[in-house]
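Extended Data, panel c. Modelled sequence:
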Amino acid sequence: MDNKYLINQYINTGMGIPKEQYDMLSSNNKKTYLRKMEIRIQQDGSYINYYYGELTEDIQLAAVTKYGYGLKYILNKGIIPSEAVQLAAVTNDGGVIYYILEKGITPSEQVQLAAVPQDVDVIDYIIAKGIIPSERVQLEAVSKSGAISFILANGITPSERVQLAAVTQDGYAINYILKKGITPSEAVQLAAVKKNSGVIKSILEKGITPSERVQIAAVTQDGYAIGYILKKGIIPSEAVQFAAVTNGVHAIQNILDKGITPSEQVQIAAVTKNGDAIDYILDNGITPSEQVQLAAVTKYGFAIEYILDNGITPSEAVQLAAVTKNGSAIQYIIKKGITPSEAVQLAAVTQNGHAIQYILNNDIIPSEAVQIAAVKQNGNAIEHILKKGIIPSERVKVIAKQNK
């Protein structure tokens, strides 16, 4: 292959040329080729593999800024790249720090800092070479999930700041800390359970009793986390119980199953979250206060059935709250032989006009006001009145007709 052909095929097109063909070029053509390659490297750093002239720092920087892996070519030439070149290379591709380390070069803190956030394995490469990374480097590394495992695996005890950064990124990172026999501070535990509430189980299994703050944080994320606390024989404070039942529909059941009688405030929070929770309270032989009953039926009107089935006669206020939520709940009151007041009847039919059937079926003759409220809500409710042989007033008939 003659020089003229090489010039046409490689130099003028800016393509890379194998070294043996480069060596065949004339001195002038070599200069032309290298100038072309310098321009090409500015566009695509991988062309540094086809540059056979002196690799100045400027050329190195141009190459690795575009193509971090080009650093391997530079190193293989026996060149120790400057910090600036190393920094540009790892900024483009953090993994190339491996090649720097393999050449026995200790990268500066700045180079390490630029490399570690990009690839979880970088910190492992650094430590494997006997280099103990600074706290700053460790902090950058743990911004990647799992990086703390490499730090701990090499016998390094990360500072509280590093532990905090790790568990803030991934709560389950606390498992690596605990496995090394390290007792994490309250701040670390707190950050971990805020990220992933389930890690409180790992903390407890290491015989650590988490503080009230940590327990609250865990159950606030997931009310069911109280189960892990209770399983370890810890009696959670009222504040912990309150946070748990506020954030877990059935958390009250976990508390009750351990023979703990929750306070009125905890009971109220539980039934406010889930009206059915009053059934768990009653099943444990606890007589809920009027306030608890009110909160339960306000959430779920039919919860009054649980109260009545336990031999408790709910107050008029509780009855009103129940039927205001679900008008048909009046049936449970009547089934227990209780004659609801006119106010309760009015509230029931105002919510559901058809609820008048339950009043009538107990041979109670509803007042005109109750009849009007029923047909105003649903004109078809007049059919229940007529079936009982009651002759509604003209006013009731008119309102019923208007609302059919």
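The chain has a mean pLDDT of 92. This feature is highlighted in the accompanying rendering.
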